[in-house]
Amino acid sequence: METQFVDHPLAAALLTTMRDARSDNPTFRSALRQLTQMLIYEAIRDAEIEIFDVQTPVATTRGVRLANPPLLVPVLRAGLGMVEQASSLIPQSQVGFVGMARDEQTHQPVPYLESLPHDLSGIPVYVLDPMLATGGSMVRTIELLVHRGATDITAVCVVAAPQGVAALENSGFPVRLVTAAVDEGLNEDAFIVPGLGDAGDRQFGPRWI
Ligand SMILES: O=P(O)(O)OC[C@H]1O[C@H](OP(=O)(O)OP(=O)(O)O)[C@H](O)[C@@H]1O
Ligand SMILES: O=c1cc[nH]c(=O)[nH]1
Ligand SMILES: [Mg+2]
């Protein structure tokens, strides 16, 4: 599986703000929004383009647009903090939603929302979720997408654990990963170490289900 690191001093500084336990909810959300811009910018670098003529005030020249605008899929809740920036960078994109809550005892993902187009064949899909820990939530989300015909899937994350990267690799699904960091591992609660804590809680407060 292809893994692309966004290795840039500005991305590292934003990730540091997100890791810092002293960052409050608005500070965390703002750093996530800005970092998402960098992740998406890199993730879309090799996207297919279409050439067309554009008329400047002076002459006709070569214009460029995305040949195949993607579907963005934030994984609720934490991925919600990434979707606004991603869709403003790619205004032609559409958005689908998946809701997934990890059971705190078993660490297994529990899907609670699936709002996606029926047919995803031929559509590049960008799954937005800041955390790839055990990988269970991402693999489950990708299963839903593949079931609808998706064959070109990019997982866009902020922090990944090696276990999550391995789970994506071993899934055999057509996915590549774009991330700002791969951390040391997981603790006994399956939290990423050093990580940044619970990315949903750090944006929105405690989860109620
Ligand atoms: O790789 P995994 O071990 O599956 O863990 C990662 C998942 O955990 C977090 O969501 P969480 O279940 O905490 O829900 P939330 O976004 O509502 O807080 C995170 O946003 C991922 O979806
Ligand atoms: O470290 C982790 C692991 C799962 N979910 C999170 O939000 N953080
Ligand atoms: Mg959470």
UniProtKB/TrEMBL annotation:
GO molecular function, one term: uracil phosphoribosyltransferase activity
Keywords of this entry: Allosteric enzyme, Glycosyltransferase, GTP-binding, Nucleotide-binding, Transferase
Cofactors: Mg(2+)
UniProt keyword Nucleus present: no
Listed EC numbers: 2.4.2.9
InterPro entries listed in its UniProt record: PRTase-like, PRTase_dom, UPRT, UPRTase/APRTase
Domain Phosphoribosyltransferase stretches: 6-205
A UniProt-annotated Pfam family: UPRTase
Pathway(s) per entry: Pyrimidine metabolism; UMP biosynthesis via salvage pathway; UMP from uracil: step 1/1
Signal peptide: none
UniProt xrefs under PANTHER family: ADENINE PHOSPHORIBOSYLTRANSFERASE, URACIL PHOSPHORIBOSYLTRANSFERASE, CHLOROPLASTIC
Family to which this protein belongs: Belongs to the UPRTase family.
Family annotation (NCBIfam families): PRK00129.1, upp
Protein's UniProt name: Uracil phosphoribosyltransferase
Source organism of this protein record: Rhodococcus kronopolitis
Taxon lineage: Bacteria, Bacillati, Actinomycetota, Actinomycetes, Mycobacteriales
